[in-house]
Amino acid sequence: MRLTRRTPQGDPERHAVSVVPVVLAQVLVTVDESGRARVRVDGIEHPDGPVDRGQLGGVLASVAEAADGAVRVEIHEPDGTSYADILQPPRRRPAPRQEKDAGRTAREPVLRAEGFAPGETVQVAVLATSIRADADGTVCLHAAPSRPRRLDELILFGLASRRTVFGRRIPHSKPGRW
């Protein structure tokens, strides 16, 4: 179960929604006399094993990212002192948009088809799978198809003209994702 805290509607500059789990992951760090830190997450030893104090921040950040939310961190020093805090992973920012294929100019088409009505909306679909109709001509899709491995088989469908075109990528365009 997760609780969602929303920012007040009156503050237009803050649209963040933060999700806080009801039970936080527990990270217990025990530092030995040599300065090496043993990290346990919910009672399970961290796979990196004991780390130097300089690596501890990176390990804790990776634990918070893997938990996909806040974690409670408790650090026990060799002199008996201990610290506790809640560590929130940094907000994920979307990757900057890049040209889909820098090697291709904007004028080179990936697929060209004719016969659509001028200005009509044409839907583009990537062929994910093919199935056969039964003896009655009925097709039943029992599960959603998986994500296609290749993106070079396309279907264009004109909403106004009802024109359907099956096509493959033009050979000069790069294979795979575009």
Report the portion of residues in β strands: 25-35%
Give the fraction of residues assigned to helices.
under 10%
User: How many E-type strands?
Assistant: 11
Number of domains: 2
Radius of gyration: 27 Å
Main beta sheet strand tally, sense and closure: 6 strands, mixed
Structural class: mainly beta
Order of helices and strands: EEEEEEHEEEEE
Distance between the termini: 39 Å
Shape: elongated
- Please report the number of helical segments: 1
Write up this protein.
It contains one helix and eleven strands. It has 178 residues and is mainly beta. The chain has two domains: 19-87, no CATH class; 107-178, no CATH class. The strands form three sheets. Strands 3, 4, 5, 6, 7 and 8 form a six-stranded mixed β-sheet that branches. A three-stranded antiparallel β-sheet has the order 9-10-11, with no helix packed on it. β4 (36-41) and β5 form a beta hairpin. Residues 1-7 have low confidence and may be disordered.
Write a compact overview of the structure shown.
The chain is built from 1 helix and 11 strands, in the order E-E-E-E-E-E-H-E-E-E-E-E. It is mainly β and 178 residues long. Strands 3, 4, 5, 6, 7 and 8 form a 6-stranded mixed β-sheet that branches.
Record the SSE blueprint.
Blueprint: E1 2-6, E2 17-21, E3 25-31, E4 36-41, E5 44-45, E6 51-52, H1 56-67, E7 71-76, E8 82-87, E9 122-126, E10 153-158, E11 164-168
Parallel strand pairs: 3-7
Antiparallel strand pairs: 1-2, 3-4, 4-5, 4-6, 7-8, 9-10, 10-11
